[in-house]
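User: C-alpha cells for this complex, please. No commentary.
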Amino acid sequence: MPVAPTRGPEPTSESRDPTTDLRNAGPLATDSLEVDRAAIQLECNRLSYSYPSIKGSSAKPVFQGVDVKVYKNELVAIVGPTGAGKSTLLRCLGGFIQPTEGHVYLHGHEVLRPSSKIVLIHQSIATFPWMTALDNVKLALTCKKVDEAEAERTAGEMLDLVGLGDNKSSYPKELSGGMRQKVAIARALAASPSILLMDEPFVHLDEISAGELRREIHSLVFNPESTLDGVVLVSHNLTEVVELADRVYVMSGSPATVVDEFRIDLPRPRALRDSSFLLDVDHLIGDLSTPKTTP
Amino acid sequence: MESVLVVLATLATLGRVWLLIGLSIVTGWGLAFLSIRSRAFETAYVPLVNAFESIPVIAFLPIVLVVFVTRLGGPVGSELAADFLVFDAVAWNIWIGAYQSFKTVPEHLAEVAENYNFGVVRTLWNLFIPHSIPRITSNLFSSFADALFYISVSEVFTVGLHTYSTFGIGTLIVQFTRSGDTSDLALALIAIGVAVVLTTLLLTRLSRKAVARYGLDTRGEITTRPGPANARSRWLRAFGGPRRRISARLTRTAAERDGRVGGSTPSRSGPLVKWVAIAILLGLVAYLLYGATQLILSVPRTEWNSLFSQTPFLLLSMGADYLRVFAVAGAALVVSITLGYYLATHSRASAVVAPVVQTVAAFPAPTYFPIFVGATIGFLVTAFPFGYVELYVFILGFLSCFYYVFFDFWIGVQAIPSEFWEVMENHELGFRQRMRRVILPATFPYLVTGLSSTINSAWAGIAIGEFWPDIVGNRTLVVKIGMMKFIGENLAAGNVASAAWVSLLFAVVVLIYGLLFTRNLMDLARRRFVVEEGVYAG
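Assistant:
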C-alpha cells in the first residue's frame, strides 16, 4: 500500500521568499537549485529485502514494500532505528545488492548493477591510503577513459571545489577525518553522477568538522555546475536530517516499512535553534518513538 | 605385515611431529614472555628468530651431522638429528606467532592484569597464552606442512657410506622407493594422505574453535557484506592466520612506537624475570659460540685453504640457485594472483577448491615426487633432453612453495574492506585497473610476507630436487650447477666440512638478503600499503 504523504509544518512566509534564502545563504548556498517536484529522478517500488537463509533457517526480512522517490535537485533522507535496513536500502538503490522484491529505476531505466551514475559515499570514509588526494579523485575518471591531463585537471577542480586545493598531494593519513570525507565527496562528484547516496557520511567526524561539512554539502552537491539530480542521505542524527533534507522517509518496525514521509520546507541555510527547525526535529522524534504499524 | 609397519611408522612420524610442535609452543610461550619482559632479550631474540626462520632447514643438515650424528652417534643420535630438523621446520614459525600475539595483547587487558595484581603465572595463563592461541593454531597449518615436507630428509640421510635413519614413514618411503616396491610405496602414500586429511580437518576445527573462543578480532565479520566480491567461505574464516600474522607485523611498529602494547606496560621487567631472560640469552649466545668454535676446530687448516679456494665457485652455484628460486617464486606469484583473485570473488569455487588446496599443501611433495618422475621421465627426456632436470627441480620447487603466497594473497584479497569493493564497482573499474590501483596495493603486505615464505620454501624443494640419488631405479636427478647439489653431493661423499662451509656462506647471504630485500619491502608495506588505514572510523 503506498504511503500517504504527510505534510510537514506549514512553511513560514519567510521561507517562501526566495530573496530571504539568498540573503541568508553563504556564497555557495546562493547557487543551490530549487527542487523540481515534477521530475522523478530515482524511484523504487514495493522494494523488499531479506537476508538469505543460513543453515536451513528461514530468510530474515529486513524491510518490505518500500517506495522511495527522489525528485530533481532534492535531498531525501531516510531515518530509522538501528537494524531498520537503511544502509541495505541505500545499497539496493545503488544496485550494489539486488532486492528480494521490487525494482529501482533511475530516469526510467532499471538499476541492476552499480555504476558511476549512482555513487555511494560511505559511513566509514573510504579513501585509498596509497594514493594521494588527487589520485583518489582521479580514480573516478579512470573508467570514463578520460586522458591523463584532463583527469588531473578535473580532479584538481573537484578538490578545489571541496576546499582541498592545497592538499592535492597529501596522502589520506595526512588529512583529518573531515578532509578525507571531502576527498571521497570530490571523488564522487568527479564521476559526474546523477544520484549521490550518502550513508551516515558525518558519523565518524567530530562535531565541529561534521557541522562545517554539513553547512557546505548542500551547496556543493546542488550548484549549477553539478550534474547531480538528487541525493539520498541515510542518517540517524535527526538534527542533521532536518538541517539537510528536503524530504524524509521514516522507517520503522520489523521487518521495516516506511511509516512516515515528511517534507521539510525550511529556508536554507537552516538555523538549528529556530523554533520551526526544532518542531521538525520533534516531529521525527515522535515518529521514531511511537511504535507504528505498517500503513 | 607391511601395512601394520606402515601404520606404526605413520603414527611414529605424526607423534614426533606433534611432540615437537608441542615443544615449540611451550618454549615459544616462554621465550615470548621473556622477550616482552626484557628489552635486552627481545633485542637479541627477534632478529635471531627472524634470521633462523629464513634459513632453509636443509642448510642445518651439516650442523646436525656434526653435533648429533658424529658426536652422539647410534640410534639416539639419528633420532635427535631427525627431531632437530623437524623442530627447526616448525619452531620459528610458532615462536614468531607466540611473540607477535604476546606483543599485541590489548593494552586495556594488560592493564586489568596489572590492576588485579595477576603476577607472572596468572598473567601468562589468563591473558597471554589464551590471546596467543588463535594465532598459534592457525600457524600450525604451515608448521605441520613444513614438518611433513622434510620427513624424507630428516628421518633418513646418507653421509658417505653410512645411512642414518630413524623409525618413521619417511624412512619407509625412501626404502620402498629405492627397492622399487611400488605397492608398499602406494600404501605409505595413502597412509600419509589419510594422516594429512585427518590432521587438516582437526586443525580446521581447532582453529575455528580457537578463533571463536579466544579471538578478539571481529572486524572481518563486521565488514562482510552480501555478494560474491566479499563472500567468505566458512572454511576460510578458520584460516585467519596469515591475516593476523601480517596485520600483527604491520601494526607492531606502530604499536611499539605508541607504547600501546602489553609488552610496553610499566611492569615490563620484574627482577627475577629479567635475570632469567639475561641468563637464557647468555646461554644461547654461549651455545652458538661453542657450536661455531667446535665446528671450526674440527676442520684441519689444509681443509680451510681448500674451502676458501672453492668459495668463488660456490657463490656462482648459489647465484644459479637464486635464479631458480626467483623463477619458481615468480611463477607462484603469477598463479597465486590469478587463482587467488578468482577464488576470492567466486565463493562457490573457493568453497570447493580451498580445502583441496590446503590438503594438497600439507601433503609432502617429496613423498610422491618420485612417482611423478617415474611416470613422466620417459616423455620429458625425449621432449626436453637438455632441460628436463631443471624442469623437475622447478616443479618440485613450485609444489613446495606455491601455497604460501597463494594463501597470503587470497586472504589479503578477503581482507580488503567492503567499502573498497563498492568504490571499485561504483566507478566501474575493469580487471586491470582493479589490480593495478586497488587489489595489488591493498594486498602488498600480504604478498611480501607470502613471497618471503615462498622463497624460503622454494629453497626446500630446490634443495631436495637438485641432487636426488636413485630417485627412480638407478637414475639420479642432478643439476649441472647448484649450491644445493654441492651440499648433497658432498654429504653423500662424506665431506661434511665442505657442506658445512657452503651452508655457512648461504646463511650469511640469506641474512643479507633478508636485511636488504624482505625488510625493506616490509617497511614499504608498513609505510604505504596498510589497507586498514584506508577506512576511517574516527
